[in-house]
Design a protein that fits this description.
alpha/beta; Glutaredoxin; 5-stranded mixed sheet; 6 helices; elongated
Length: 194
């Protein structure tokens, strides 16, 4: 099975409808609200490290202040007072726990997830809108194992045959007419040397 990165499970949430679609699409997910405070960077690093191995958890990301409508929708639906940074864990579109601001640290996030998430990792989540290198890795692996013909991987780029014509000249040696028609002037009439 190929490795699914956190980036491939990442879903930007901008509007209320994005939040509702996201929560209805995955059994387990988290929403991370990223604000402009210094705490956001440290909290996101912790969230990334802890969530990376849980390929069965989708990650919704709300950037503030730009995505305020999405953040307000979360607060309205679940009665969780808006904070940023903030991490909220959901199961079947029900909030199971959240951490705010300075509480998003390994000592608090790891227990929250281990108490709520099933011990066995479920089916991997993948955002189809994220372009990954996995198809190319798989093809290259097949090639190295000898399962794929090299003509399928490598495209031959052939140099066009040399026609002996200089750039800007027509095949009869004349220069093109700038008005769009074929010209009959010789290169020397324009000061060009051959």
């Amino acid at each position: 099975m190929s490795r699914v990165t956190l980036r491939e499970r990442f879903f930007p949430l901008h509007q209320p409808a994005d939040v509702e679609r996201f929560l209805g699409g995955f059994p387990w997910c988290v929403i991370f609200k990223a604000g402009t405070s210094d705490k956001t960077f440290d909290a996101w690093l912790v969230a990334q490290q802890v969530l990376e191995p849980r390929v069965d958890v989708a990650v919704g990301f709300i950037r503030l202040p730009e995505d305020r409508p999405a953040s307000e929708r979360v607060a309205t639906l679940f009665g969780i007072v808006h904070r940023s940074p903030q991490l909220i864990l959901f199961h079947e579109a029900t909030a199971r726990g959240h951490l705010d601001e300075s509480a998003i640290v390994p000592d608090q996030l790891v227990p929250l997830l281990s108490e709520q998430l099933p011990a066995e990792i479920g089916r991997p989540v993948c955002n189809e809108a994220v372009v990954t290198l996995e198809p190319y890795r798989a093809l290259l692996s097949q090639f190295v194992q000898g399962d794929v013909n090299s003509d399928r991987i490598f495209v031959r780029i052939e140099k066009p045959p040399d026609r002996g014509v200089e750039l800007g000249e027509l095949s009869d040696g004349s220069l093109p007419d700038r008005s769009g028609g074929k010209g009959s002037r010789s290169p020397s009439t324009h000061g060009g040397a051959r």
